[in-house]
Amino acid sequence: MIIKKPPMGWNSWNTFGGEVCEKVIRDTADAMVELGYKNAGYEYVVIDDWWSERKRGADGKIAVNKEKFPSGMKALSDYIHSKGLKFGMYSCAGTMTCGGFPASFEHEYEDAQMFADWGVDYLKYDFCYKPMHAVGKLLYNKMSMALKATGRDILFSACNWGADDVETWIRSTGAHVYRSTGDIFDHFESVKFIAQSQFDKINYSATGCYNDMDMLICGMYGKGLVAKGGCTDAEYKTHFAMWCLMQSPLMIGGDITNMNDYCRNLLQNKGLIAINQDEDGRPPMMVNWNKDRPVFFKHMANGEYVLALFNLSDEDGMVGCEFFDIGVSADHGFDFVDAISGEKIGVVSENLYETIPAHDCRVYRGKFVRV
Ligand code: GAL
Question: CA separation (Å) from 122 to 91, 184, 191, 248?
């Protein structure tokens, strides 16, 4: 299986944590279709940790928690597929998942087959309780091969939180996406910390294997498992724009059955999603190397370019760059539109500086033109 765009979907962890259950998954699948998310490109519905019993069953398999998932995983998978969506599940490379449930260490081939038998299309594979003597790289390689051996197309999502310089070897294991940071929390400090930690690793994300900066917190507003006070609308916009620009997978972590209009529209914003899903898969270039007020420039497959200005600092202030710092002389410029609102900006040459409120951003997209 080769992936040419970062995956888009929803994952249960950020909001529901250990409360994940069949009803949540069915309601989410319904909302995905009825509220426009599927049309916008979201397709995977992923169950994270806490779906099984505490011990493997007598047959040696991971036993589904029947109270939480009374119909079982195959029926749930069929339901998700009947909506034209894809089904994702979670296990872990260690002896237990992070929540203390059975994991796949030394059960890789049988567990992979069980997931394939259920019709799973996506496996998130965590890193807790990894025995010290076991090499993470080989454990990811092993599960990747076990998934391929099933003959089913299963997107393999590695989640070792950026440990062991993962970006330098993960591509060689066959993984399609890899978590590059610790867990996200629903406040702007977390968004900023994760974003800044990846600025010097931008080039380790490309077609075939993308850097996963963790599930989105848009729309949580301080409610749910990873809530830590919540964000403002502008902060959620900055978060989403950054994840789109960095071509992170777009896995919604908020409750889409209960999302306000602002965040539903944001998560379905065509301009930002087009940047994220660009098939050329080129990482952005960081123009000014100011980690608090970064400016990024990106080539798009359709011949357009993106210029994105972020103010991650706590003060309103000027963000921008001279175009000669991208290699553009004064006789050329860009015919920009605002990529988020679609508003026409017109031709801009020589430089672009704007006063941007704290925690806000601007994203422009357009053709390179002679002025
Ligand atoms: C963490 C992982 C989270 C979530 C959690 C479940 O290790 O980073 O995204 O999956 O485990 O226990």
Answer: 11, 21, 25, 16
